[in-house]
Amino acid sequence: xxxxxxxxxxxxxxxxxxxxxxxxxxxxxxxxxxxxxxxxxxxxxxxxxxxxxxxxxxxxxxxxxxxxxxxxxxxxxxxxxxxxxxxxxxxxxxxxxxxxxxxxxxxxxxxxxxxxxxxxxxxxxxxxxxxxxxxxxxxxxxxxxxxxxxxxxxxxxxxxxxxxxxxxx
Length: 169
Known about the structure:
Elements: H1 3-22, E1 27-34, E2 37-42, H2 47-54, H3 60-63, E3 72-76, E4 84-86, E5 90-98, E6 101-106, E7 115-117, E8 122-125, E9 130-135, E10 140-148, E11 161-164
Antiparallel strand pairs: 1-2, 2-3, 3-10, 4-11, 5-8, 5-10, 6-7, 6-9
């Protein structure tokens, strides 16, 4: 990553942190070191408000499978891709806050066609469904909710099965 992209990354994370603060969201974790961008984890106690703000068309009874939602804001860098992955213990819901972003989805290990999602687009991935978030020409910002499917063993970062990864993880 060249210096201009580093400065741009620092700037975008500062802007999002400030915006989250103005929205009165508590950030419990921030990761700016991901090779594809990074994320902000929102305080679980604010998950219901987060869901209402970013997914107002969904009922909480449809969103909340277990008691935990793990709300996040994902930031994907231009021309970077998250791993081609799936999960055993969660489904995911995304809303594009700034975009466009690219998404690939498939029921098997073969990557699906690239779909371009513009601002305000919504997408839902089932447990086990293969998926990949892709940065296009600009920074993409996505609100994400994890729908934990196992109440006794909530999903975490270890619940990522990577089928392909540009960064060798």
